[in-house]
Design a protein that fits this description.
Elements: H1 2-10, H2 22-32
Length: 33
């Protein structure tokens, strides 16, 4: 299940548009999960 969560976060279209917030957005989502 963890693998599926990681894939969803990486493929999240809401994260890609942010150039400077990619790392911040990813970390936030990972921490929430």
């Amino acid at each position: 299940m963890s693998t599926e969560d990681q894939v969803t976060v990486d493929a999240d279209p809401y994260i890609w548009p942010f150039d400077g917030d990619i790392a911040i957005g990813r970390t936030a989502l990972v921490n929430i999960d």
